[in-house]
User: Fold these one by one.
Assistant:
Number 1:
Amino acid sequence: MKKILFALYNLLLIIILPLFFVWMSCLYFLKDKKAAGLFNKLFPSLNKGVNEPDFENGVWIHTVSLGELKASANFIDLIIKKTNKPVYLSAVVKTGYDYAKSLYGKDRSRIYIFYFPYDFYFSVKIILNLIKPSLFVCVETEIWPNLFNMLKKRKIPISIINARISNKSYKNYSVLGFFFKYVFESLDLVLCISGGYYEKFLKLGVKRENLHITGNMKFDLSLRNFAEEIDEKAENLKNTFKDGKVIVAGSTHKGEEKLILDAFVKLNKKNGKIFLFIAPRHPERFEYVYNLVADYNLQCYRLSSIYSSNYELIPPFNESLKKASPVDAGIVVLVDIIGELITIYSICDVAFIGGSMVQAGGHNLLEPLFFGKPVIFGKYVENFSEIAGRIIEIKAGKRVGSPAELFNALLYYLYDEKAIKDAKESGLNLISQNKGSSLKNLEYIAGLLKK
């Protein structure tokens, strides 16, 4: 039955391949982010230099995007140091791929970065023939039937670390359980964030002896890789914005910028000088957000321009209004550089985490806590539900469900000194108490490498 189901799966992929290729090619030539790395995903090629070492028998670590890559940075360092094995690092999303290149691109002797292939049989076969890994490690959860099936046939262990699964994905896999049970049974090791995810993976078919709870690697965020750069930029930004409070709206989605801007305008009128940094989740929305700020007749600066002007605030010209913004208008900074949000969190007074006031599942709630900053988020935090609950419990942040609640939460964490102090202490304690997941994961992974 398993062979029949996989044959049908591959037949379906072959049928959709022509349409998929045409559609993705159009997106590629339109420079749509969904088609980034299209040809490398279809026909993997590593383009190694003549003098580069042989990576055969290395560890393949797969991260989907920027968030997973940041979460795995400490684990990747541990793998290289403790196992002395080279690493193949793959990403699906362009932001994750570009960030990996900026972080590890110079270390071509230990880490090789490439786009994760599509799950077409020929694409998977090409990449496995090229890299011949001794182990596959997926950070968080992506299930690829052909890849997992082929890894199993080649006796290459398959592991998922920081494993979690959304309610929607769980339902989908359950409905198609007649097929996916074979995929989940193939997993040699699944290291879960919490007990709730443990039970879901168990019900989907992962063997109990292959399941463990090791915590969340996002608590192990490695600031060491970019600490010097953060410190230098943060100090300059602090000097530039020293005359007021700083709000950061990170990883925002459409609809959330208007909510935060409405609250900002209201706060700015009543409570003295406040600066707002907005970091849209998706780069293609930078221009939209810039123009939205202009509609509010606020002074809008691009972070890239602030860096290039040596941290000087030159009054901007809002082209959409065809006039200069008033000099006393509120100041908004558009974070238009990928990977800079962590630096901005380090200088803020309070952070709003996007993807939470709209149905996007929420984004990383922990990064501001590393700097003792209170966090505010909406009710749509399915991807971080347990962390969100803990943050509320220890009063390191607030959940809001309306524009009025968002305004009041910002006001609370900007000016209530006791609340600010309590949030800082609670947040830092939460991070400190939950560190160590990366090392626990490494111990289990090392066991697979010895087999």
Number 2:
Amino acid sequence: MTLTELENAKARSLEEIGAANDAAAVEALRVKYVGRNGLIPALVKGMKDVPKEERPAFGKAVQAWRAEAEAALQAKGAGAKGQGEAVDADLTMPGRWRSLGVKHPLTRVIEESAAIFGKLGFTVADGPELENRFNNFTALNTPPHHPSMDRSDTFWFGDDCLLRTQTSPVQIRTMMANKPPVRVICPGRTFRRDTTDATHSANFHQIEGLYVDCKDKPVSLADLKSVLAYFAKEMMGAGVTVRFRPHFFPFTEPSVEVDFSCHVCKGKGCNVCKQSGWIEVAGAGMVDPRVFKFVGYDPEEVSGYAFGFGVERIAMIKYGIPDIRWLYENDVRFLSQLG
């Protein structure tokens, strides 16, 4: 480009900037002329191709063009040195106040649970979501033919790797790494192939608890019931009571289902508790001696209990959430109601 052509291009650019009548047009001209890949920076990069004797005058003309273009753009609201954007607002007005966010209901239940059990001496243990067959099934006394080991129920990656179906493997890892006494809760995410209705999800959260002590401090079902009764009152309210029903789990013996009295109707019967007055919350029981053998404990020297409940279930009951999928849709309209 000759000096004459440069002056003509400069005049056209200033004319275009002067004619721009909105922020978008000004921004487009800024990009065209002084942006990183604009015409003026391209001329600066091409100075090496300008004859040596013409470079001083040519360079001075280019820099003058840049200064005038940036000044014209700034006057049009493009920002200092042509790097900003057009401002279509009254900058003297106070900014908009955005309210603080709220914790997700699942986070709130997990944190409240950790605080409640923390008062009873339980610490929080964590483990990987990708587990092996031994920790997730074998060490928990699960028979090889158990339905939960089928590929239609569990996410397998090969024959010995899976997404954990419960947080019980964390209990196994904790016992294998520590001698009694052990008193932990294990909150975390778990996975099962279960999306049958509005109360089930392939991804969900559990909190499991484990207390094991030596024979000079024997642990019983009475201890388990007192702990869960305390948790129920702290989480759901002072009027909630606990009920145990006989059940079966491979890793506990005896095993029980744990119900909380309905905190909505106070046990009289309502839609929340399906008119029964009780809400099924957890599974629990005394740790099976065979589980102790798998982790290297002597069943004659230790005793303990374990329990587990779904975080989503507690959240749905506590906050009146009818569909588990609401917890995963990240809809601000839903989450803001829980503030």
Number 3:
Amino acid sequence: MIDHMPEDVSPAGRDLRAYTDQLRPLHPVIRNNVGDWVLLRHADVVAAALDDERFSSAVSRHLQIPNGLDGADHTRFRAVIDRYMTQDALAPFLQKFEDVAVQLMASLPHGKPLEAVGGIGAVFAVRAQCAWLGWPADLEPRLLGWMEANHAATRSGEDQRTAQVAADFDSIIDSVLAPRLADIDAAPDDVTTQLCRDTVDGRPLSRAELTSILRNWTGGDLGSMALCVGVLVAHLAGDAKLAGHLRQASDAEVDRVIDEILRLDDPFISNRRVTTCPVQINGREIPAGARIKLIWTSANRDEAVFGENNFAPDTNAAANLVYGIGRHVCPGRYLATCQLRIALRALLAAAERLEFVAGDPPEREVSPVGGYRRVPIMLG
């Protein structure tokens, strides 16, 4: 273990992928400027993610379902959530996602600059999630505005701004929940209403529980989907051969390629844990009650597992941690995979070429946000 740490290990203002690539070979476990213990290597991240007893997910003072639950509580609520995420449950929505994607891509200009994260990814994410949940289309401007404000607040690291955007999003959720809960019998038969009628332990879900679940399905997923689209578009704009190949590839192959691109540039930056007892990780003694950050972006680029990080979808699939691992693996993996594949296929069908804009290169996001802030492209 290297004892001499950099004086400033704060990731603030840095491209976290590049920064962790520098740190990981010499400093697999670091303690950052705010006292968090940060795990950068694949083996350490996997070990902590699989050890529910020593690494608790109950890290927030706010209700977070299912991310912030442990043990039997997590199992009960995860059973509710997983019912909405199966292939059978999502099958009726795949055509709706395709309709959203085809309509959006057909509306994009050709031969003129456009921005892939906000102009393609964010719009598709909002429309697809609203189609799934049964949310009204007129929420789109409000949701798009919130996504932009949320990323800005996250970048700032200011607690007051973060709290305000969280409150703003809860008010959006309340605008959807309130009329349904006021007269559930007259509510539209959609996924949000089904959730309002659902139960855990034989009782109805509370309003706070409903809000937390819907916040997880939307507040977290909308921004992540937009960032994923930006990463995919940036990669394919730089690899015309791969883009051409994907036009003829099977769904399974497209899914593997998407997962590998996101492994190389994972916008799902991290998850948090807290130690329930003293632990030793990679030679570092860490006390009970310590805040732990599992950096998926770094683990997914660990040279000990992925060598020189060459693009190899089949070879790297088994160790890919884009959606996490263990009991807390992302419940929406299948949903996200379907939506990303559908969006990518529609974009490639609508354009013969994806090209970067001369003189306006992609702009990386900075910690704690991953991927790209802007990906200016033109469709040919």
Number 4:
Amino acid sequence: MADRIKFNIPGKPAYLTMVRLAIGSVADTMGFDFDEIEDIKTAVSEACKNVSCHGLDGFAEEYSVECIADEGYLEMYVTDNSGGHVLERLAKPCQSCPNEGNLAIFVIQSLMSEVEILDGSQGKKTIKMVKRK
């Protein structure tokens, strides 16, 4: 049976280090090697920045990271929980929603086994990533 870990993060850049440490710990517990762990941490960081870049001060108020650790793979979801990308809330650093063609998504795709961008209800964005052993 898979282990499920989920936490909500305030959309402040200062918490990104905590996310990287938590994800790295999960990947290490699963037996990924050092390089794979660094790839996973980088991909999750980019996904967090991608979904949280919008908000009153340039960042979403909150986003979630969910991990499903199963034998042979780690599945991760990074989701904007702040109400989505509303035009009235667009602020620095982005002036338009990122799309699949931007550099962050390219980096994530190059590091992970699978990547999918999901548009949920109310404009909420989720980036699903899978890393296989």
